[in-house]
User: Fold this.
Amino acid sequence: RKEVEQDPGPFNVPEGATVAFNCTYSNSASQSFFWYRQDCRKEPKLLMSVYSSGNEDGRFTAQLNRASQYISLLIRDSKLSDSATYLCVVNKGGGSEKLVFGKGTKLTVNP
Amino acid sequence: EAQVTQNPRYLITVTGKKLTVTCSQNMNHEYMSWYRQDPGLGLRQIYYSMNVEVTDKGDVPEGYKVSRKEKRNFPLILESPSPNQTSLYFCASSFEGVWDEQFFGPGTRLTVL
Assistant:
């Protein structure tokens, strides 16, 4: 099983749609979880940290399911500007200071 | 302005010619790291540094060296570049390592002929 796995997409949705991304991780000792956004070949930027209780930031909601070892990102009322690649990021766990990035899920929001 | 800078942004070089990509941050961050990004493989960590004089290997360290003599700088050194090191490289920094937001530089696109 890969350390961090994401559905590569692409996801093509109309404006206003709700879209959900999932990401699975293999190490049960992982403790920190993030979603980053990357626009075409630009640097990744933090979208949200993911907390055990789940967290919401405007139209974005992140959830963590430790039992099943996956995190999710829900985007409501999609905007054209949400078009980007979304990266799931997890620390390796077990005291490691390494981060593992998923390969990303590409989202295109169409007018 | 708080930022991570990388230089050069673009570089075309030839096999075996030593090169250094510089990375500097002005946020007093303890943790710095280097990644390469390749199509279909995503971002992979090359090296990271917890603090000055403390560095450790990431997942793909072969063919690379780093140093952390000062807190703000974390150069990536390719002693003898090869074509398989053609990639997009990102430097990143954070205050609290893997527990914290990573701030990325703008990237360096390297081509090794």
Remarks:
- The two ends of chain B are 36 Å apart (CA to CA).
- The mean pLDDT of chain B is 96.
